Amino acid sequence: MTSGGLRIEIRGIVQGVGFRPWVFRIAHELGIAGRVRNHARGVTVEAFGDAAVLDRLVARLRAPSPPAQVRDLVAEAIPFEPVSEFVIARSETGGGDPDGSAGGAGGSDPRGIVHSAEGGPRALSIPPDLATCLDCARELADPADRRYRYAFTNCTACGPRFTIAFGVPYDRPATTMALFVMCPACQREYDDPRDRRFHAQPNACPVCGPQLALWSPRGQPLASDDPVADVAARIARGEIVAVKGLGGFHLACDATRSAAVAALRRRKHRDARPFAVMVADLAAARALAVLEPEEVALLEARERPIVLVRRRPATAIAPDVAPDTELIGLMLPYTPLHHLLLAAAARPLVMTSANPSDEPICAENAEAVRRLGDIADALLVHDRAIATRCDDSVARVIAGQPTLLRRSRGYV
Fold first, then answer.
1. Which of 68, 120, 219, 275 is the most exposed place for a label (fewest CB within 10 A)?
2. What is the pTM of this model?
């Protein structure tokens, strides 16, 4: 056998999606030694072993499991190193080359786009925000789980990414989760390459992570043992609630209550444009719309866009939700908070961007009080900051193909 070494440079969506532990497991399976690490332009693998086995490694790395995506892979020979194991190395910081020689030649802007010294954009590897995965959804609903009903449950397969990142490489210190110190249980998950939360940067639990709070329209905290249940009760009474989500606030109300929808239109100064509606699951979506298989796939996609579909006649949805059109914009829950709220409300909810018409989406708590205090009857807030505002994406199936009409959350 001929031993050798390869340096493999990988670009694409390869940070914050469990890519390094996946590489770690493949290397151990193949008996390869070396290291994998993040840096500002993507991921570098330095691998040492039999030449034929290294070729197999390269072939495997070209086809990762979603949501990871390899857009560019370059392998070059390097001298063999007599290392005994494969490890996940500490990420490199700054905008330099993988070997550190470029030092501070580049930098990053608040959107996470890295620029070279000449001013041009480099490869961007911060992944998009992804809808809650099935594993996290099961934990959310399990009374025996330590994350039962925790509104910020996530793992490397789901949760916030782009909206919490303000720099690269995509590591916790460069996100709005940097202020939350993980408890010992969360830290063990984060440090274990075999755990699905290994280097899940938003990793948290009720002990150490972000928390919900219920506020009055003027920003005064309201006593609440269960903010989600209290918001659901307010919505059932016909109130409008501003709900802080991934990339900004929504304005939520009962989509079956005409008076609530009319009040939202009046306060938001939105005369006729349709409102998006969030439903708990696919069965609830089918009760409101005639769905083709391609539309079902789009609704359930990890990007979770608003999908424009043909609504059924004579449903419980208030006519003023989408006047003068046979279409309705539906979406399924894409955060644990949405899952909890839809389950507690037990009805379809209008979920429209929280802003007066023609203004940017509202993102921060104090800003919400200032801009939404005359629209919402209450605010459901949390203490995880949003680094980048990101509205819901909008899609429609046209001629059998999914077509994005607004590219935003889930796709950026």
1. 120
2. 0.81
